[in-house]
From TrEMBL:
Source superkingdom: Bacteria
Enzyme class name: lyase
InterPro entries: ClpP/crotonase-like_dom_sf (IPR029045), Enoyl-CoA_hydra/iso (IPR001753), Enoyl-CoA_hydra_C (IPR014748)
Protein name (database record): Enoyl-CoA hydratase
Keyword DNA damage carried by entry: no
Pfam families named in the record: ECH_1
Lineage: Bacteria, Bacillati, Bacillota, Bacilli, Bacillales
Length: 258
């Protein structure tokens, strides 16, 4: 199943797993690697065997950011013509839940990748940072936008201006991540969570993600109208009939994602 150069992937109990696999460069993200990650996400999104997705990194870091060697010589016209962020933008179109299991360095583009996922579980000792300022640039794959929406303007300015490292405990306190576990248990605990989601009704999961994502951009009124349509939509699913019938018959529901 593995035809990629910079990632590995497999499916286990309804969970599609993507492992960044460039550990000697601390999973520095080159353009091909991002394309592979996005392609694998899209393939899992279309695969009925997969209900939730887990993204993690091999080696001692989730990712130390975009590949500096690859972009160092670029000028802005080359950047415009490459249009590399078109690949990044496709991550937000993935409908299934994506869990990030992160450890070590989650820096720059690696932090931006993590912020594009849905639920983050971090190993003890994980550090998050936007160090781009030290390179004479700034985040470019959504970092200033996504971080600010989570932690507010003051902390985002402080962290992105200084490049200071955010320890996992602080990331948890500010709502950047969901949970901290020991490094030895990172995969086990993250898989446990992903497998738990994989047992939930898939259509509910995707419309919950869709609705909650709208809360970030919509007014409360618009968001409530949007939520309502998704709520109504689920009443056309077999899983809604099965879920409610199972409750009435006092048995466990068998969800099929239809
Ligand atoms: N790019 C390329 N190679 C890298 C990167 C990177 N971002 N990070 C680490 N590496 C390589 C190192 O060069 C080294 O390679 P080699 O062994 O061949 O010398 C190897 O990985 C191991 O790294 P270190 O020896 O430096 O390991 P340390 O434990 O001493 O340090 C650090 C770890 C602190 C993480 C350090 O490697 C570091 O500072 N890395 C750079 C971090 C950084 O600046 N990241 C931001 C990059 S810019 C960015 O992400 C912009 C995003 C914009 C959107 C995306 C567009 C594509």
């Amino acid at each position: 199943m593995n035809t990629f150069e910079y990632i590995e992937r497999f499916i286990e109990d309804g969970v599609g797993v993507i492992q960044l696999n460039r550990p000697r460069q601390l999973n520095a993200l080159n353009r091909k690697m991002i394309r592979e990650i996005v392609t694998a996400l899209e393939q899992f999104d279309q695969n009925d065997e997969v209900v939730s997705i887990l993204v993690t990194g091999k080696g001692r870091a989730f990712s130390a950011g975009a590949d500096i060697d690859e972009m160092a010589g670029n000028d802005s016209v080359q950047m415009e013509l490459l249009n590399q962020f078109a690949d990044w933008d496709r991550i937000s179109l993935i409908k299934k839940p994506i869990i990030g299991a992160v450890k070590g360095f989650v820096f720059g583009g690696g932090f931006e990748l993590a912020l594009s996922l849905d639920i983050l579980i971090a190993a003890n000792g994980t550090q998050f940072s936007f160090p781009e300022v030290q390179l004479g640039v700034m985040p470019g794959a959504g970092g200033t936008q996504r971080l600010t929406k989570i932690v507010g303007r003051a902390k985002a300015l402080e962290w992105v201006w200084t490049g200071d490292r955010i320890p996992a405990e602080m990331a948890l306190r500010y709502g950047i991540i969901n949970q901290i576990v020991s490094e030895e248990l990172l995969m086990e605990e993250s898989m446990k969570f992903a497998k738990r989601l994989a047992k939930q009704p898939p259509l509910s999961l995707r419309l919950i993600k869709d609705s909650i994502n709208k809360a970030v951009d919509y007014s409360l009124y618009e968001g409530m109208q949007y939520e309502r349509k998704n709520f109504y939509l689920l009443f056309s699913s077999q899983d809604q009939k099965e879920g409610m019938q199972a409750f009435i018959e006092k048995r466990k529901a068998e969800f099929r994602g239809r």
